[in-house]
Every structure is written in C-alpha cells, then in structure tokens.
C-alpha cells in the first residue's frame, strides 16, 4: 500500500514519497479517523452521520458520500475515473478502509508494545522507535468525540506502558542513570502509576542514590494516599524494604564491581566540586582505562582526550596540563595514527607545555611529555620531524632510567619502539625493546605493557621468520588479554595467525583466504581506523604477489593510505604502462613504520616491471639493511615474502 496513516497525533496520511496527503476539512478527517478506528470493518453511512453531527443536516448522507469521494481522490490520485477504490471501499450499507497492518502508526505501535519478551537491547531499540511515532495525543483533533474516547484511552495506556517497558529495558542493560530523567517526568505527569514510581526508585538506587530512592517511595505513598485515598501496593512496599536492607536481587545482571562503581561515581559527583581541577586528572584516568576496553571505548577515549587537554590549557597551569597529557600512557603497538590531526594537536600541546614548565625538577613530568611526543609522532614524515621525535624518545628513556621508575620506563620504551623505524631492517632492535618491556612488566606487574612487549616481539620474530618464537608471544598475549580483559589484542593475534598460515606455504589457498576473511571481520568495530584502513586490500595483494599473480584491479578496492605504492602495480595489471610509470615517479618515499619494507618491495616490483633503473637503485639501497627479514612480516599481519628475493631481482635487473 502506497499510503500510510497516522493517528498518534493529528490524523494524517502520507503518500509513498513521504509527502503529506491533503485531506481537506475536519469532516473529511473525521470520516477517515472513524474508518481507521473500525480496523477494516464496515461502518454504515448512518453511523457515520450520527458520529459526525449532533444535529445532522437534511442531506447528511449525501455529504458523507461527498467526503468519501474527496478522500478517495486524495488517497488514490492515480486511480482511473470510475474504477473502484481498492483502499476506501464501498461495502453493503457503508464504507471500510482496507489498510494493511503496517499502514497505520497506531496499529504498528500496538504490535511493538504487545510483542512477547525480547532481549533488552532489541526491546529498547524498538520501543525508542515506536515512541518516536507519537506526534501528540492520539486522534488529537477529536478529543471531545464520543466515538474516539475509548480508543484514545486505550492508546494512551499503551503509550504509558511502553514508556515503562523502555525504562525496564534500560535497567536490564545497566543504563539506570539514563532511565531516571524520563521516569521522573513520567511520574510527575502520571502520579497514579505505581509501577512508574517503582521503576524510578529502583533506577535511583542502582545509580547509588539510596536516599533519593527512599524519598521517591515516600513521595509516592503521600500522593497515593492524599490524592487517590489508597495505600501503596505490595510491590512498592516490598521495594522500600529491600532498599533499606540493600537486597542483592535489586541489581540483577550487575555484580559487586558494578554496584561499587555506580556508588563511587555518585559519591564523586556529590563530593568533588564540578569545577575542581582534580576532575580533569580523574577524567584522563578513566579515558586511559576506556581506551583498552574495545572499539567503542577506544573511540570515546580518543574523542575526549583532546578536550581534556584543551580544558587544562585554558586554566593556564602548565604542571596540571603536563599531568593531563602524560597520564594517558595507553600502550600502543600500531605505527600509524588513528587520528593524525589529533596526534599533531597532542604533540603541539606537549611541546608547549614542555616550554612552559618551570625550570628545575619535574624530571618525571618532562619524561612523560617527551614520551608522548615520541609516541604520537609515529609515522611522521620528514627528516627533521622524525629526528625531533627520536630525540624525544631517547631523552624520555634516559630520564626514566636515571629515576629508576619502572612504569615511566615502560612508557618511554613504547615511545622508543615507535621511533625504531628510521630505516629498514631494525626488527632485531625492536625485538630487544619488546624483550625489555616483557621483563620489566613481569617484575613490576605492568600488565598492559607486558601485553605490548609480547606483541612487539610477535612482530619482530615474524619479520625474522622465527614463527615458533612468534607463536609463543601470540599465545602469551592472548592469555594476558583474557585475564585482563583486553579485547583488541585478539585483532592483532588473529591477523598474525593468518600471516603464519600464508607464510608456511603449505596451507591450501582457500584456507589462507578464509583466515584473512576472519581477520578482516575482526576489524569491524575495532575503533582503529589507522590500523584497518587499506589492510584488507593489502592482504589480498600479498597473497596474489606470492602466487605470482598481478594486483587486483577492481575499481571499488580501498587501498587506504597504501594507495600511492599499490597504484603502479594496479595500473600494470591493467596494462597501462605509461600511467604506471607516472604513478611510480609520483610515489613518495614510504613512511617509517611497520610496513616500510613492504612498501619498498611494492616499489621494487613496479620499478623492475617498468625498467625504471633509478628507482630500482633507490629501492635496493633502502632494502639492503633488511636482507634477512620478511617484507611486511614486521607488521605481524601480512608478508610479501623474503626481502632477499626482491634484492636479488633488483640486482639481476640492474645487471
């Protein structure tokens, strides 16, 4: 049916394009409303006359027929003349509206509210949508009509029940704080609904506001007794008793940790002034923990981090700003930033703060700022910028060692890792950093950095084709991730196992492709755009090149940041040699990151195919130090094979 009807508010109709259908005057709307209310049953013309007029005019029946004819023209404008209506039909002594079950908002709403119990996530989503269909009181312009009164009351009751069911879903999902404002307004407007009072009190209790919950129950008792002359029901009385003794069953689905969190957060909000500077430092602590909980948490932490830094800078307190910046010591393994603009902003703020710190002392604070500069400058282009970041990493490490501060040293070593890519072939150096991180973390109980150390070593051992060693570090990282709830670790280890299968050379191609499909699926919702952008395409290319096949040429392929180095091979696969040569000349030097060797190998392969001797010479020079490594293996994600093979091909091509 192309027309849908709305009665959850003023009576309205919309056509298939979503435009409002002009329904003419109030009597036309009344006829339509009366037929909708009949739910497909025939309404005799005489009944319509009685419902439309207290004192019908002499030609009331003719007027009703005129209204119906006008409605038919409006609702079915493309119906041929004299063709029978399929929507507003004549049947026996009257008319009926043949609308589908989904064509009237009130009917859809009733289905949603009447659906049997569903998972709370699904219930919350559907009820949110259904409550959004309400545009005002049901049958809004017919509030005084007897024929609409019962249906309006029924729909209003359904709406109130939907509001309460939505609150119940929020409570089941641990969203008690979100439920409080809606329930507060709900009981203010409908004070006779005992279940609404019960839900509000329960929501307040679950947010740690036991006193407010008891006050709500007292207010409910007063209103019920004074205004309705009735005592509170059993459910309200039992809830009050349970709150007083803090019964465990009041928080189903929440463990002790959740209850402690809710109550501690409520106490913090109550006791720490809203403008207190301590709130900024506390916020960064929360963001740091949030960043390692998974995709949504990582995205939220990233969004709020710069705001916290900006708020600290506004206060003009360099030491506070330094603590806010340096407290975000989240272990980082991937060498391409998720948000380069924000990373540049963090670096700039750290450098400003370093310059503003008072002379003397503050060594640990300076080291944290320097480590932040090194960490956030990952993959930075340009010789000068890279040297500045490497110097920051060296100085942070020097200070941390002098202070004998294990946590600070772990942070500084993370920065040193990010700056260990100034040339190809540095896998052994990074392996040493990873080994020290693991040893340091085990001695001083630094779980996050212990995971990081194992991932660093996984990458380095992969680059060195030591897959037995890499397997051990992957297993160790997975074990720690399970113990300390670090879900993002599995993204890296799943990709590693696909690489492992591909590098073995023994697995069927279908199995390798399936492993990479699983790895790509783990990227969904990871919250790491700097990691996932272009990787699926690059993984496919690595498999094709190892099989001696040309690059994939589908137009929709997303190469992400790797496009400049993949493009010449794609153009060669299309047999566009001149364009490929031009693209190769335009390709910049690859960034100094975990895929440095891999990108140079792509350049080498295109240069050999195009007989570009100058580029071949540069590629051989750049790749020379990595002769014992796997191209791309240092990423722990994919490989284009031994670098030595590319060096041999380059040397042969150069004669």
Features:
4 domains, 655 residues, two-stranded antiparallel ribbon, mainly alpha, Arc Repressor Mutant, subunit A, Serine Threonine Protein Phosphatase 5, Tetratricopeptide repeat
Record the strand order, biggest sheet. Answer: 3-5-4
Biggest pleated sheet: 3 strands, antiparallel
CATH topology tier name of the largest domain = Arc Repressor Mutant, subunit A
Beta-sheet strand percentage? under 5%
Instruction: Report, as a whole number of angstroms, the end-to-end distance.
Output: 74 Å
Please state the CA-atom Rg, rounded to the nearest Å.
34 Å
> Which CATH class of the largest domain applies here?
Mainly Alpha
**Count of distinct strands:** 7
State the domain count: 4
Helix % is 55-70%
Q: Would you identify the CATH architecture of the largest domain? A: Orthogonal Bundle
Structural write-up:
By secondary structure, this protein is mainly alpha-helical. It folds into four domains: 151 residues, Orthogonal Bundle (Arc Repressor Mutant, subunit A), CATH 1.10.10; 77 residues, Alpha Horseshoe (Serine Threonine Protein Phosphatase 5, Tetratricopeptide repeat), CATH 1.25.40.10; 129 residues; 141 residues. It is built from 30 helices and seven strands. Strands 3-5-4 form a three-stranded antiparallel β-sheet. The chain has a two-stranded antiparallel sheet with strand order 1-2. A hairpin with a 2-residue loop joins strand 4 and strand 5. Helix 20 runs parallel beside helix 22. The model has no long low-confidence stretch (mean pLDDT 91).
Summarize the structure.
With 655 residues, the protein is mostly helical. Helices cover 65% and strands 3% of the residues. Strand 1 (4-6) and strand 2 (12-14) form a beta hairpin.
């Amino acid at each position: 049916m192309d027309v849908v009807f709305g009665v959850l508010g003023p009576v309205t109709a919309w056509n298939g394009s979503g435009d409002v259908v002009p329904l003419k005057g109030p009597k036309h709307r009344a006829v339509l409303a009366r037929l909708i209310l009949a739910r497909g049953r025939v309404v005799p013309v005489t009944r319509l006359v009685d419902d439309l007029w207290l004192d019908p005019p002499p030609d009331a029946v003719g007027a009703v027929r005129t209204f119906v004819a006008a409605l038919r023209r409006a609702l079915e404008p493309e119906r041929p003349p004299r063709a029978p209506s399929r929507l507003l039909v004549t049947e026996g002594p009257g008319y009926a509206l043949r609308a589908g079950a989904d064509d009237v908002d009130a009917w859809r709403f009733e289905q949603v509210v009447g659906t049997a119990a569903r998972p709370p996530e699904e219930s919350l989503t559907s009820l949110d949508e259904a409550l959004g269909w309400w545009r005002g009181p049901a049958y809004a312009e017919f509030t005084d009509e007897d024929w609409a009164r019962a249906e309006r009351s029924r729909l209003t009751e359904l709406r109130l029940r939907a509001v309460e069911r939505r609150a119940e879903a929020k409570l089941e999902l641990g969203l008690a704080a979100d439920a409080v404002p809606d329930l507060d307004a709900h009981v203010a407007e409908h004070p006779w609904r005992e279940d609404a009072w019960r839900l509000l009190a329960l929501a307040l209790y679950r947010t740690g506001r036991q006193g407010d919950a008891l006050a709500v129950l007292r207010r409910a008792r007063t209103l019920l007794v004074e205004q309705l002359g009735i005592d509170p029901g059993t459910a309200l009385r039992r809830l009050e008793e349970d709150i007083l003794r803090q019964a465990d069953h009041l928080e189903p689905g929440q463990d002790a940790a959740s209850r402690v969190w809710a109550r501690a957060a409520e106490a913090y909000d109550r006791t720490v002034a809203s403008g207190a500077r301590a709130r900024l430092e506390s916020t960064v602590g929360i963001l740091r923990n949030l960043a390692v909980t998974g995709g949504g948490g990582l995205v939220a932490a990233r969004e709020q981090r710069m705001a916290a830094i900006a708020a600290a800078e506004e206060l003009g307190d360099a030491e506070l700003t330094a603590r806010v910046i340096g407290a975000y010591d989240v272990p980082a393994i991937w060498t391409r930033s998720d948000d380069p603009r924000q990373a540049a902003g963090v670096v700039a703020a750290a450098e400003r703060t370093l310059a503003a710190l008072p002379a003397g002392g503050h060594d640990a604070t300076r080291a944290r700022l320097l480590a932040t500069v090194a960490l956030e400058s990952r993959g930075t282009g340009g010789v000068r910028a890279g040297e500045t970041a490497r110097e920051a990493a060296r100085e942070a490490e020097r200070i941390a060692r002098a202070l004998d501060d294990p946590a600070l040293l772990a942070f500084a070593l993370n920065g040193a890792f990010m700056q260990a890519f100034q040339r190809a072939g540095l896998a052994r150096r990074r392996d040493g950093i990873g080994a020290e991180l693991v040893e340091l973390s085990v001695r001083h109980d630094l779980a996050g950095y212990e995971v990081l150390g194992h991932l660093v070593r996984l990458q380095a051992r992969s680059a060195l084709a030591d897959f037995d060693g890499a397997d051990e570090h992957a297993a160790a990282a997975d074990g720690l991730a399970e113990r300390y709830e670090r879900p993002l670790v599995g993204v890296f280890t799943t990709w590693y196992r696909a690489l492992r299968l591909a590098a073995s050379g023994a697995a069927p191609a279908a199995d390798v492709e399936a492993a990479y499909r699983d790895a790509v699926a783990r990227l969904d919702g990871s919250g790491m755009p700097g990691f996932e952008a272009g990787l699926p395409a690059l993984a496919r290319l690595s498999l094709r090149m190892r099989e001696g096949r040309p690059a994939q040429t589908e137009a929709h392929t997303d190469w992400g940041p790797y496009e400049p180095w993949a493009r010449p091979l794609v153009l060669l696969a299309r047999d566009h040699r001149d364009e490929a040569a031009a693209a190769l000349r335009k390709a910049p030097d690859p960034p100094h990151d975990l895929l440095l060797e891999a990108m140079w190998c792509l350049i080498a392969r295109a240069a050999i195919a195009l007989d570009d001797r100058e580029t071949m010479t540069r590629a051989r020079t750049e790749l020379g130090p990595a002769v014992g490594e796997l191209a791309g293996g240092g990423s722990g994600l994919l490989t284009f094979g031994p670098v030595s093979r590319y060096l041999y091909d380059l040397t042969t091509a150069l004669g």
